[in-house]
Amino acid sequence: MGSRTLPATKVLAKEMMPLVDRPIIQHAVEEAIGVGIRELIFVTAETKEIIRAHFQRNAVLEKELALRGKQELLEVVRNIPPAGTNCRYVIQQEPLGLGHAVLCARDLVGDESFAVILPDDLIYHETRTCLQQMIEIYREKNASVVAVQNVPLEDTPKYGIVETVEDAVAGKKMKSVVEKPAPEEAPSTLAIVGRYIFTPGIMPLLETTPRGAGNEIQLTDAIAALIRKEDVYLCEFEGKRNDCGSILGYMKANVDYALRHDDTGPEFHAYLTELMGKQGTD
Description:
By secondary structure, this protein is of the alpha+beta class. It has helices at 24-34, 49-54, 59-67, 71-78, 98-104, 106-109, 130-141, 202-208, 219-226, 247-260, 265-281; strands at residues 18-19, 22-23, 39-44, 86-91, 114-117, 121-124, 144-150, 160-167, 171-179, 190-198, 232-236, 240-243.
């Protein structure tokens, strides 16, 4: 619903808010494509037609860019997404939670393992994306993998928090998971963030998962059921995470990504240095 970013998201889908020179969701798509994924399923609300429009060809725009000789921009636009990428769309009719959103894609996913990326969570690593790190674990273990990050104890009510069991050979696995526990009840400070790889076993469990916290079908409840049937491994990823779901997080992400941008980074860095210098003398 984008409630944490209102009024900016009153009409504009939060996933389409610009992060430097491209919408937030395009960063997620590029992460998926970067590890070889070519089948993309977007689970969206009926009001978010703008997302579908962004990933479709725009013949009028392409013609204008060609006429004006803007070949570099033309190639950028034509490659959203790159050739060979298949984009499919599923409407989540009601905002019934992340578990329900994943379940909406069950017919398109079929009996396959699949990745889930939440665009709000941007995770940057210079050489190995979070999803790439997770796929390495998945290929080694042939099991579901969940991305986790240590958070301050006072922030545990914002996340699904995991209890772990560690095997010297097998690696760190999930023992249990609690949705948004109070700090005094949290089994750890390892929080689930917006990247998952699931085996097909998760879908039947989602189909029978009752509504939980917030009267929603919680993905963490289905994961809790999954770990009673098969191993679920954890990926304590390397990289920096930005939460774009809040205004402050979105602002921080724009600064971080602008500083890394090939074209604007150096000049933007100089501007920030000058700005902070002026503030220091005021």
